[in-house]
Amino acid sequence: MAEIINVNRISKNYERKIALSSLSFTVEKGELVALIGPSGAGKTTLLNMLGAIFPPDQGEIVISGKQIAEMTDQKKRAKKIGMIRQQFDLVGELPVIHNVLAGRLSDWGVMKSLVSLLIPQDKDYATAALDRVGLKDKLYERTSKLSGGEQQRVALARLLVQSPEIVLADEPVASLDPARAEDVLELLVNIASEEKQTLIASLHSVEYARKYFDRLIALKNGELFFDLPSSSVSDDHIKRLYSLKEHS
Amino acid sequence: MKKRKLNFVTASVYALILLAAGSWLSIFTVENANLSTLFSQSNLMYASKFFNGLFGIGEENPAFFNAESWGNAWALTMETLVMSIMATGFATICALLTVVPAARNVADGSLTLVKKWHGRISFGFIRGGYIFSRAVPELVWAMIIIFIFKPGILPGAIALALHNFGILGKLCAEVIEDLDSRPIRNLASSGAGRVQILLYGVLPAALPRFLTYILYRWEVIMRTTIVVGFVGAGGLGQQFKLSMSFFHYTDITLLLFFYLILVFAADFISEKARYFIK
């Protein structure tokens, strides 16, 4: 398998607080990686830098052999990297179909985007994606009327339409109850493996991380705590990762 | 130590109480004011004369029993309605055309993740325009514009629109500043350009709130038409002023009646429409 993400000694500080210090790892194409660690360990910061929301203070991130700092074209970057967060990603006032078709905006010009708000364009993409996430009947429903789990499925449908090579998920199921959380997570992982996408997801739940992901990267206080295949992560590892006493 | 220190809020409450007591004291002792002078015999006579006039007592042909006056008042009411709608329309169009660069989070690029060199300049320019246009009261705008054009409802509508353009622009820009930035940034990360973000992220969230402000301003404009009418902007206000000058008191009753209906109708419509939007 080919290397798709190379993170080389990146650091990030907020004011005086160190968010990440000298972090390095590589991810192969098609890998399913879970980021775990206590709150404030730097998981969200790492994902935001991988998604080019802001650059690292030091170090470099290379995606498919290209420096992320040089990928300035938003439209091309969207084909490479897609993001999903907690359920506040969607425009609540719009019907579901437009939120899903927003994944096509990187391919559309301004005129087509405008027309699409009146007469939905490329509708097949949207229906296929919504069918895949099990919300085929909600095509024209107002997005804010959907439940949290359904909204997260709509966000997944948008990602399907966008179809990036790398999916970054920042606490994708944090605001859902356990049953729906597992449901959405399973869908996310299944879609990623079927579409041959590389998935990096930060998670609160170690249980889900071990169950659904191949590889676990644990962060603590901005540093790499361990980076292991999920089968070789022991309970002792987890206990030490989340223990409060080792905080300096 | 810390407990005894007088903080700013407590100090200003004490100052407020002291100031209120002092003001009333000075009114009665220094100014020597007396409420009973308002209710003098002569004032009572003027008041009774005016109200008798309004109800048409002792009048041979009161306007509210005259079909022609009714028709006339109805035409003026329609004129006023047209003026208020025109004013709201002009103000809305101009505000919508300028509102996007006037939002602080668009100007500094934090909403759309795109920063343009002219962001700050156009922000300052448009916001300055808003302040100027709403700092001048409707009445002053109307006097200036009627000085230039001939009297009528179009200059009246322009005057009202000029003042409300500044108000609507500021309110709508603040709506954009208060938008939840998460869905919008997410659109940016899924590859949407500046205009696409506007179409898919900003407008759907902001338009319903714009509409509530527009309807509310329409209500206010409807009430203000009578003020600009006084300086010759047409409609019920102008006729009100004329009837007052000619001592046609029963005309005033009729005009007030139509005016009240108009204001109630505007209140009712905008309230229902706002309810419908939510």
UniProtKB/TrEMBL annotation, chain A:
<dbReference type="InterPro" id="IPR003439">
    <property type="entry name" value="ABC_transporter-like_ATP-bd"/>
</dbReference>
<keyword id="KW-0547">Nucleotide-binding</keyword>
<dbReference type="Pfam" id="PF00005">
    <property type="entry name" value="ABC_tran"/>
</dbReference>
<dbReference type="GO" id="GO:0005524">
    <property type="term" value="F:ATP binding"/>
</dbReference>
<dbReference type="InterPro" id="IPR027417">
    <property type="entry name" value="P-loop_NTPase"/>
</dbReference>
<keyword id="KW-0472">Membrane</keyword>
<dbReference type="InterPro" id="IPR012693">
    <property type="entry name" value="ABC_transpr_PhnC"/>
</dbReference>
<keyword id="KW-1003">Cell membrane</keyword>
<dbReference type="InterPro" id="IPR050086">
    <property type="entry name" value="MetN_ABC_transporter-like"/>
</dbReference>
<protein>
    <submittedName>
        <fullName>Phosphonate ABC transporter ATP-binding protein</fullName>
    </submittedName>
</protein>
<feature type="domain" description="ABC transporter">
    <location>
        <begin position="5"/>
        <end position="246"/>
    </location>
</feature>
<dbReference type="InterPro" id="IPR017871">
    <property type="entry name" value="ABC_transporter-like_CS"/>
</dbReference>
<dbReference type="GO" id="GO:0016020">
    <property type="term" value="C:membrane"/>
</dbReference>
<dbReference type="InterPro" id="IPR003593">
    <property type="entry name" value="AAA+_ATPase"/>
</dbReference>
<keyword id="KW-0067">ATP-binding</keyword>
<keyword id="KW-0813">Transport</keyword>
<keyword id="KW-1278">Translocase</keyword>
<dbReference type="GO" id="GO:0015416">
    <property type="term" value="F:ABC-type phosphonate transporter activity"/>
</dbReference>
<keyword id="KW-0918">Phosphonate transport</keyword>
<dbReference type="GO" id="GO:0016887">
    <property type="term" value="F:ATP hydrolysis activity"/>
</dbReference>
UniProtKB/TrEMBL annotation, chain B:
<protein>
    <submittedName>
        <fullName>ABC transporter permease subunit</fullName>
    </submittedName>
</protein>
<feature type="transmembrane region" description="Helical">
    <location>
        <begin position="246"/>
        <end position="269"/>
    </location>
</feature>
<dbReference type="InterPro" id="IPR000515">
    <property type="entry name" value="MetI-like"/>
</dbReference>
<keyword id="KW-1133">Transmembrane helix</keyword>
<keyword id="KW-0472">Membrane</keyword>
<feature type="transmembrane region" description="Helical">
    <location>
        <begin position="12"/>
        <end position="30"/>
    </location>
</feature>
<feature type="domain" description="ABC transmembrane type-1">
    <location>
        <begin position="77"/>
        <end position="270"/>
    </location>
</feature>
<feature type="transmembrane region" description="Helical">
    <location>
        <begin position="197"/>
        <end position="216"/>
    </location>
</feature>
<dbReference type="Pfam" id="PF00528">
    <property type="entry name" value="BPD_transp_1"/>
</dbReference>
<keyword id="KW-0813">Transport</keyword>
<dbReference type="InterPro" id="IPR035906">
    <property type="entry name" value="MetI-like_sf"/>
</dbReference>
<comment type="similarity">
    <text>Belongs to the binding-protein-dependent transport system permease family.</text>
</comment>
<keyword id="KW-1003">Cell membrane</keyword>
<keyword id="KW-0812">Transmembrane</keyword>
<dbReference type="GO" id="GO:0005886">
    <property type="term" value="C:plasma membrane"/>
</dbReference>
<feature type="transmembrane region" description="Helical">
    <location>
        <begin position="81"/>
        <end position="103"/>
    </location>
</feature>
<dbReference type="GO" id="GO:0055085">
    <property type="term" value="P:transmembrane transport"/>
</dbReference>
